[in-house]
What does this fold into?
Amino acid sequence: MTCAAERLPRVRRARARGWVLFEMMMALTIFIFMAVAVLGAVNQGLMSAERTRDASKAADLARSTMAKLEAGLGTVQNLAGPVPAWEPTLDAESAADAPFDESAPAGFSEEPPVDSLWEVEIETLPSEFPGLTHVTVTAVRRASELSERVAASYTLHQLVRLAPETEDSVGELDDIGASVAPPGGRP
It folds into this structure.
């Protein structure tokens, strides 16, 4: 009888160890599942932030292109098309600390410009208002160089007075300005 009495506590201890092992495996499984869920949420957050950043850049690019057209700093022909990659510029403090290279002109790089995945599309249509053109500027970022899939896009519509690049009419009244000017003087 002593053999059976001795075996009973061993069996209970073995069962207790088995339950501890089972509980540890369940806790590890739950921990791994939660870690995967948290990493998935972080990944989704990062992708959302990237989409928001690209949408903001698309809006900025479309607005700056439209402003250049309005100011006469460019034409539809030279502003439309692929956009070169943005290069960081040195501020005054950083430029003072940067090593000086006598062989390269200041502010210029010998590297060819890197193509970005951004493009500007410009469409012009005549408007019913004399001297004004309906301009549509669309900034588009492609998913990759060979892809046609659009990762970000922003379209801006505006009536713009387009002038030929060679025309300098600063201070002169155009047709629209003359039509609203009071008789005998400037507005």
In short: The mean pLDDT is 80.
